[in-house]
Amino acid sequence: MPIRQDRDAENELEARFLRDVLSNRHNRAILACWDELALPDGWLVAGCLFQTVWNIQAGQPPEAHIKDYDLFYFDPSDLSEAGERKVQAHVESLLGGLGVTVEAINQARVHLWYESHFGQAYAPLHSSREGIDRFLIPSTCVGIRPGSLYAPNGLRLLYDGILSPNPLTPHQELFERKAASYRSRWPGLTITHALSHGPAAGATD
Fold it and tell me: Which of 133, 139, 183, 199 could in theory staple to 158 by disulfide, Cβ–Cβ 3.0 to 4.6 A?
């Protein structure tokens, strides 16, 4: 019975999360164009999702304080910067009218630029989901696409506002900077320095 109750609670939290993130009109618009975007292994990820949740909890508009909307895709057949720019141009042709920054990032080539940009080595990824797994903060490891939710650490840490380092990406200085930035916008968040994972939730299709 406890296992069933845990799963029921998880299902309720997943349903709540989808309602919350879809209250953001920009998230809805991006997902409405999903077939036209045609991104291989595509996911809408990161701040536009978990920050929408924090905005709602703080009584703010769903779109408040969100700097950009990130799209992950995975295309190992073209690791060039020019190829990524071409995908970005396609995204902008479809979504430029939203008036927000939407960025498409090929997860197959992140290892080529991560160290020069962030000062830390980064092993090659094998899927977009693996890129989500490696976000600096476990509670923020979330992605959606029509009919699917990916939350490898569950959603409880997100709704509890817990910011902790990710053992898969133990870059302490980067974590401190990111967590401080989030706390400045959402003071109700809690920073802890213990490496931790939430319960694995996998994907819901």
Answer: 139
